[in-house]
Amino acid sequence: MTRVKAIGIGIGLFLMLLSCDGNRVFDEYQSISGGWAKEDTIKFTLPDLDSIQPYRLFINLRNDNSYPYSNLFLITKMQFPKGKIITDTLEYEMAAPDGQWLGTGFTTIKESKLIYKDPVLFSEQGVYTIAIEHAMRQQGEAEGIENLPGITDIGFRIEYVTNH
């Protein structure tokens, strides 16, 4: 293969990768270092969104091999511009029964794109905020885990709903 042809193929692949993310509206991460403390609430302030456009909402998590569980419990709070708050308790599988991580990635860090709400309309004009905290407990214990190891980043993503 000639050098020019190889460069052309490389540019084509790069452009294909860029076009694959055309549904992204918002995609932000916050890093966690030294474990996710149970009192640490991760907050995202959402951009102005079209009130008639439906969206898909995702919680994105990155974990490494020190995450000791096969699942993850989260508490989310969506605060509307006029003050209303919707609270959800969510459970996500993080590993298969054989222990393999369900996330994607080529290194020891795996990324999981977890569906949060689909579809959603942001019918109130103004600022929406999303708050996420972990709700992990040891089996049989009432108190939450003080410091959850292995979660390296928490993200929030909004995508357009398309008919594809």
Task: Tell me what the structure shows.
With 164 residues, this protein is mostly beta strands. The chain is 10% helix and 43% strand. It has one helix and ten strands. It has one helix at 3-19; strands at residues 24-31, 36-37, 42-45, 55-63, 71-79, 85-93, 110-120, 129-134, 147-148, 151-160. Strand 5 and strand 6 (85-93) form a beta hairpin. The longest helix has 17 residues, at 3-19. The protein starts with a helix and ends with a strand. The model is unreliable at 12-19 (pLDDT under 50).
Annotate the secondary structure layout.
Blueprint (H helix, E strand, L loop, with lengths): L2 H17 L4 E8 L4 E2 L4 E4 L9 E9 L7 E9 L5 E9 L16 E11 L8 E6 L12 E2 L2 E10 L4
Antiparallel strand pairs: 1-10, 2-9, 3-8, 4-7, 4-10, 5-6, 5-8
What's the arrangement of strands in the largest beta sheet?
1-10-4-7
How many angstroms separate the termini?
Answer: 35 Å
Bin the helical content.
Answer: 10-25%
Oligomeric state of the chains present here: single chain
Overall pLDDT level: 89
| Main sheet overview | 4 strands, antiparallel
Radius of gyration: 19 Å
The stretches of 5 or more residues where confidence is low (pLDDT under 50) are 12-19
Q: What's the level 1 CATH class?
A: Mainly Beta
How many helices? The count is 1
Summarize the model shown.
10% of the residues lie in helices and 43% in strands.
Relevant terms:
single chain; 164 residues; mainly beta; Jelly Rolls; 1 helix
